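Input.
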Amino acid sequence: FFVVEDHILHTTQGLVNRAYIDELWEMALSKTIAALRTHSSYCSDPSLVLDLKNLIVLFADTLQGYGFPVNQLFDMLLEIQDQYSETLLKKWAGVFRNILDSDNYSPIPVSNEEVYKKIVGQFPFQDAELEKQPFPKKFPFSEFVPKVYSQIKEFIHACLKFSEDLHLSSTEVDDMIRKSTNLLLTRTLSNCLQNVIKRKNVGLTELVQIIINTTHLEKSCKFLEEFITNITNVLPETVHTTKLYGTTTFKDARHAAEEEIYTNLNQKIDQFLQLADYDWMALEPGSRASDYLVDLIGFLRSTFAVFTHLPGQADVHSTMSGKVAQTACMSACKHLSTSLLQLLLEAEVRQLTLGALHQFNLDVEECEQFARSGPVPGFQGDTLQLAFIDLRQV
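Output.
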């Protein structure tokens, strides 16, 4: 309609004038923008939002070529861009949920060079020691690491699609991608990871694997920075460049998994302690530690063997794995010591025999023996035994 009106204006005299067309355009533009705002707000499919954006760009560029002012249309596209980002975040929340729910939380086995190269191609991982090992071998992380990393890159590409043909500077495009990616990491992916960690049926081996996985994803953040830089050609050192906050997301998830390990261990100890059935009036002690305690110590030994699967490279990972294992072990021993002390001192125990006390002493000795055996490497001297010192004194 406006192309025809413009043609009439330039090829005839007296039929239309510039003021009439400008007034008509202003009215049509305001109604068009209002309608687009209303209808686009209901759109939850990112591909439809992208199609809408492409039509608006085509419309705006065409009419701009005929001299019509279209700045308001491009301003509105920046509003729709925020909405597009939100629809992407919702879509990727589902993608991440599916990846995390379907993961087996076990190191990825590789049987040949082809599979090894495929995974290294998906995720930036280098380990000279692992490369030297013969096949079959295992990556330290599970499937969700390369899958999540690939999906973050897919999200970045999806963000880039909207910025095409918007006449934005490379700095503006870079800023838009980084801000959207930060939301993906700190909000969407972070929530998905936290939900997995807080699940009722999550096991200790899964939590240990999550610690390993998030450690490797944290290390990969610098490669995501490079990936964005290669797309936008804006160096990360440039003033006003937004930094990616992925390291924070993965650190927070790792700390949450660690706390969940400590909590789960204490809950398991409590379950075993519920089986404790001391006869405080027994005349003679048994010949060995109580069955429930022997089972509990066996559980703790097998549990701390799991921690040997934590990242063990000779760098910050080994320090991290050692600290998690040591903290978990010390926390478990202190909790066990406190719980046993409460059993001995609880109000219902009005009196006890020497035989009962000897039986309880056998159980305390079993705990002390466990602490002396070094279930987790890295403790100095009798540090772990000190967890039972108060119990021993009583």
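Residues 311-319 have pLDDT under 50 and may be disordered.
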